[in-house]
Amino acid sequence: MTTHLPSPDRSGPRRTRRTRRPFARRPLSSYLTGCLAVSLAVSLATVAALAVAVPAAAPATAAPLPADGPGVGTPWVVTLGDSYISGEAGRWAGASNSDSDRADALGPSAYFDNASGTGETIPRCHRASSAEAYIGGGVEGLNLACSGATTATSTGTNFKPGIDFYEGSAGKGQARMLQEAAATRNVRMVVVSIGGNDFEFASVVQSCVVNFLTSPTWWKNYCHDDSSVAANFTAANVADVRSRVVGALDNVATAMSNAGYSTSQWTLVVQTYPSPVPNGSGIRYSESGYTRQSTGGCGLWNRDADWANSTALPTINGALLGAADDVGLPNVRTLDMTHAFDGKRLCENGVGLYEEVGLPSWQSAGAVDRTEWVNQIRTVSTIGDSPYYVQESLHPSYWGQLAMRNCLRQVWNAGSPRSGSCTVGNLGAARLTPSGEPSMVLGPLE
Q1: Which SUPFAM superfamilies does the protein's record reference (predicted)?
Q2: Are 130 and 87 in contact (CB under 8 A)?
């Protein structure tokens, strides 16, 4: 599910060079304008069916060349799920509060994925070209994930295809799209990241930010003990979401079987979610005042940040890992992203905004090491002619997307997929690979 500020809808963000005034201390209500719609649920885009190239005419005596399909032709990786795999926030490399151009790596067409490159196939799926699906090296990528998707398709204001076989006037579910795509491609690996929106994580973050902005340091109102938040993490709800994820994974297996694949011809990779913020002690802005949100875009009390890492994230990822076991397939692997951004998270000590670390832009030497890999939680900065979307909040930005791609390439393992946990290589001195990605390490599963 995706929520947004009550500002005029835009078919795509406009690239405008603008200088924002320093955040002045105003009545609290000013800071709350639009912040009730912080969205984490983010982005998948359906793709138009690709025409299979017809080989040149052969002598009449030659056997016809086989068309690409199960086990035949160029290998493909397909990604399914929600915003954490679709490419949401993949436009922005770090952040600046003074000039958006300093962090604008992909520009206003960042999420254009239709055949002509002129717009989105599904509005607000936000499938960026920096998304992890495109590992290269002779492997083709197809991104069917959608920002805001849950395990089941939603046909509300914005169509959000789930991992099911839905087909209607609004579009198709991701499992149906996978089945159709796999019939004419040699799909060797399907990567799934889903479940966060089933846990209502967007509304959880919304509650945490609102509680931070509306309570004083001497009487902190925490979100982790709000009944609306706690309800998402009861044993009953965790079991329910785990069951839904199992159903989604079963749908993936059914789609591949219907397309003509045996389990030995492809691998299912279940991908967990990364921690987007450090514990409270690792946040570089004080709890006092509004700087933590107005400057850093990370308006959480320390205890809520600690809870997010000690309880919320492990619970969500545990449900995914449990579902991977429950589905009972012999071709399942796991990519654990829990600590993939540690040291580069939003508001974390050791990294900062471009103006804080003294770098001109994302193209500056060392930018990948000194700036954040997770996008700010945005509120009033999305109003008017802003190039930002609320739904980009708290998602892997350009560096984060490329880091996950580097991890996934290691999982692909030259066509022999393996499981693993991903972390930053050379933490504190992160560097780019020759392909322009952060160098990551795939270690054993924790």
Answers
A1: SGNH hydrolase
A2: yes
Structural domain includes residue 371: yes
Provide the residue range defining the domain that includes 423: 28-44+66-443
Report d(CA 373, CA 346) in Å as an integer. Answer: 7
pLDDT digits 0-9 by tens, 134-159: 999 999 999 999 999 999 999 988 99
In-domain check, residue 100: yes
Taking the CB of residue 197, how many other CB atoms lie within 10 A of it?
28
Q: How long a stretch of residues is the chain?
A: 446
Residue 48: CA count within 13 A, CB half-sphere: 12
Number of neighbouring beta carbons within 10 Å of residue 366? 12
User: 195: helix, coil or strand?
Assistant: coil
348: domain CATH number?
A: 3.40.50.1110
Token code pair at residue 26: 């105003």
pLDDT for 365: 94
Give the sign of the dihedral formed by CA 252, CA 253, CA 259, CA 261. Answer: positive
Token pair in block for residue 43:
């982005």
Domain for residue 15, yes or no? no
Rounded CA-CA distance 113/87 in Å is 11
> Which segments within 18-60 are labelled E, that is strand?
43-44
Residues 6+ apart with CB under 8 A from 96: 102, 103, 353, 354, 355
333, 412 Cβ separation under 8 angstroms:
no
Q: What is the Rg, in whole angstroms, of the alpha carbon atoms belonging to the chain?
A: 21
β 267-271/186-193 pair status: parallel
d(CA 213, CA 379): 11
Global pTM value: 0.85
Which residues does 237 contact at the CB level (< 8 Å), separation at least 6? Answer: 199, 231
pLDDT in tens, 156-191: 889 999 999 999 999 999 999 999 999 999 999 999
Q: Is residue 52 part of a domain?
A: no
Residues 6+ apart with CB under 8 A from 147: 2, 41, 42, 43, 44, 82, 83, 86, 88, 124, 125, 126, 127, 391
**Domains contained in the chain, number:** 1
Q: Is the separation of the CB atoms in 349 and 284 below 8 Å?
A: yes
Q: E strands of 12-136, at which residues?
A: 43-44, 75-81
Return the exposure string of 385-408: e unless at least 16 CB atoms fall within 10 Å of the residue's CB, then b: ebbbbbbbbbbbbbbbbbbbbbbb
